[in-house]
Amino acid sequence: xxxxxxxxxxxxxxxxxxxxxxxxxxxxxxxxxxxxxxxxxxxxxxxxxxxxxxxxxxxxxxxxxxxxxxxxxxxxxxxxxxxxxxxxxxxxxxxxxxxxxxxxxxxxxxxxxxxxxxxxxxxxxxxxxxxxxxx
Length: 135
Description:
YjgF/YER057c/UK114, alpha+beta, globular, RidA family protein, deaminase activity, CATH 3.30.1330.40, 23% helix
Protein backbone atom coordinates (compact mmCIF):
# COMPACT_ATOMS: atom_id res chain seq x y z
CA UNK A 1 0.00 0.00 0.00
CA UNK A 2 1.50 3.36 -1.02
CA UNK A 3 -0.07 5.17 1.95
CA UNK A 4 0.02 2.98 5.06
CA UNK A 5 -2.16 3.64 8.06
CA UNK A 6 -0.04 5.10 10.84
CA UNK A 7 -1.06 3.80 14.29
CA UNK A 8 -0.33 5.96 17.34
CA UNK A 9 -0.49 5.40 21.08
CA UNK A 10 0.85 8.63 22.62
CA UNK A 11 2.30 8.42 26.12
CA UNK A 12 -0.31 10.95 27.28
CA UNK A 13 -3.08 8.36 26.70
CA UNK A 14 -3.56 4.84 28.10
CA UNK A 15 -1.42 2.30 26.22
CA UNK A 16 -4.01 0.67 24.00
CA UNK A 17 -1.35 -1.29 22.09
CA UNK A 18 -0.99 -3.62 25.08
CA UNK A 19 -4.71 -4.39 24.72
CA UNK A 20 -4.48 -4.95 20.95
CA UNK A 21 -5.71 -1.71 19.42
CA UNK A 22 -4.59 1.88 18.75
CA UNK A 23 -5.73 5.19 20.19
CA UNK A 24 -5.23 6.97 16.85
CA UNK A 25 -5.05 5.94 13.19
CA UNK A 26 -3.78 8.48 10.66
CA UNK A 27 -4.61 7.95 6.99
CA UNK A 28 -3.93 9.76 3.76
CA UNK A 29 -6.95 10.67 1.64
CA UNK A 30 -8.09 7.82 -0.53
CA UNK A 31 -10.98 5.50 -1.30
CA UNK A 32 -12.89 4.43 1.78
CA UNK A 33 -15.29 1.58 2.48
CA UNK A 34 -17.85 1.58 5.27
CA UNK A 35 -18.84 -1.97 6.14
CA UNK A 36 -22.23 -2.37 7.76
CA UNK A 37 -22.54 -4.08 11.10
CA UNK A 38 -21.79 -7.76 10.70
CA UNK A 39 -23.56 -10.26 12.95
CA UNK A 40 -23.54 -14.05 13.37
CA UNK A 41 -25.95 -14.67 10.50
CA UNK A 42 -24.65 -17.04 7.83
CA UNK A 43 -25.38 -17.10 4.11
CA UNK A 44 -26.45 -20.75 4.39
CA UNK A 45 -29.11 -19.89 6.98
CA UNK A 46 -27.62 -21.99 9.80
CA UNK A 47 -28.96 -20.86 13.18
CA UNK A 48 -27.02 -18.40 15.32
CA UNK A 49 -24.99 -20.16 18.05
CA UNK A 50 -25.77 -19.41 21.71
CA UNK A 51 -22.11 -18.84 22.66
CA UNK A 52 -20.81 -15.26 22.58
CA UNK A 53 -17.37 -16.53 21.50
CA UNK A 54 -18.85 -18.57 18.64
CA UNK A 55 -20.96 -15.59 17.57
CA UNK A 56 -17.87 -13.36 17.54
CA UNK A 57 -16.02 -15.90 15.41
CA UNK A 58 -18.87 -15.78 12.85
CA UNK A 59 -18.97 -11.98 13.02
CA UNK A 60 -15.21 -11.96 12.32
CA UNK A 61 -15.66 -14.39 9.43
CA UNK A 62 -18.38 -12.19 7.93
CA UNK A 63 -16.23 -9.07 8.41
CA UNK A 64 -13.32 -10.79 6.65
CA UNK A 65 -15.66 -11.76 3.79
CA UNK A 66 -16.72 -8.12 3.47
CA UNK A 67 -13.07 -7.03 3.42
CA UNK A 68 -12.37 -9.59 0.68
CA UNK A 69 -15.32 -8.25 -1.33
CA UNK A 70 -13.74 -4.77 -1.45
CA UNK A 71 -10.18 -5.99 -2.00
CA UNK A 72 -8.99 -5.06 1.48
CA UNK A 73 -7.19 -6.87 4.28
CA UNK A 74 -7.37 -6.51 8.06
CA UNK A 75 -4.41 -4.09 7.95
CA UNK A 76 -6.61 -1.64 6.00
CA UNK A 77 -9.20 -1.32 8.78
CA UNK A 78 -9.07 2.15 10.30
CA UNK A 79 -11.88 1.84 12.87
CA UNK A 80 -13.82 -1.12 14.25
CA UNK A 81 -16.96 -0.54 16.32
CA UNK A 82 -18.29 -3.43 18.36
CA UNK A 83 -21.79 -3.47 19.80
CA UNK A 84 -22.23 -5.96 22.65
CA UNK A 85 -25.50 -6.86 24.33
CA UNK A 86 -25.17 -6.80 28.14
CA UNK A 87 -21.59 -5.49 28.15
CA UNK A 88 -19.81 -6.59 31.32
CA UNK A 89 -16.09 -7.06 32.04
CA UNK A 90 -16.52 -10.86 31.81
CA UNK A 91 -18.34 -10.72 28.47
CA UNK A 92 -15.78 -8.27 27.13
CA UNK A 93 -12.96 -10.61 28.19
CA UNK A 94 -14.68 -13.47 26.30
CA UNK A 95 -15.15 -11.30 23.22
CA UNK A 96 -11.67 -9.81 22.87
CA UNK A 97 -9.56 -12.80 21.72
CA UNK A 98 -11.77 -13.70 18.72
CA UNK A 99 -12.35 -10.00 18.02
CA UNK A 100 -8.62 -9.20 17.92
CA UNK A 101 -7.94 -12.30 15.82
CA UNK A 102 -10.00 -10.63 13.07
CA UNK A 103 -7.16 -8.18 12.43
CA UNK A 104 -4.11 -10.47 12.17
CA UNK A 105 -2.08 -8.26 14.50
CA UNK A 106 -3.08 -4.93 12.92
CA UNK A 107 -4.34 -2.59 15.62
CA UNK A 108 -7.20 -0.43 14.32
CA UNK A 109 -8.93 2.12 16.49
CA UNK A 110 -11.67 0.35 18.46
CA UNK A 111 -14.86 1.50 20.11
CA UNK A 112 -16.89 -0.90 22.25
CA UNK A 113 -20.51 -0.02 22.85
CA UNK A 114 -22.87 -1.76 25.25
CA UNK A 115 -26.40 -2.07 23.88
CA UNK A 116 -29.69 -3.44 25.13
CA UNK A 117 -30.48 -5.36 21.94
CA UNK A 118 -29.46 -5.90 18.33
CA UNK A 119 -31.50 -6.64 15.17
CA UNK A 120 -32.75 -10.04 16.41
CA UNK A 121 -33.17 -11.44 19.92
CA UNK A 122 -30.56 -14.19 19.44
CA UNK A 123 -27.78 -11.78 18.40
CA UNK A 124 -25.22 -10.79 21.04
CA UNK A 125 -22.52 -8.95 19.08
CA UNK A 126 -22.20 -6.81 15.96
CA UNK A 127 -19.15 -5.21 14.34
CA UNK A 128 -18.90 -2.44 11.77
CA UNK A 129 -15.74 -1.32 10.01
CA UNK A 130 -14.28 1.77 8.38
CA UNK A 131 -11.65 0.78 5.82
CA UNK A 132 -9.11 2.74 3.77
CA UNK A 133 -8.98 0.76 0.54
CA UNK A 134 -5.56 -0.11 -0.86
CA UNK A 135 -4.34 1.91 -3.85
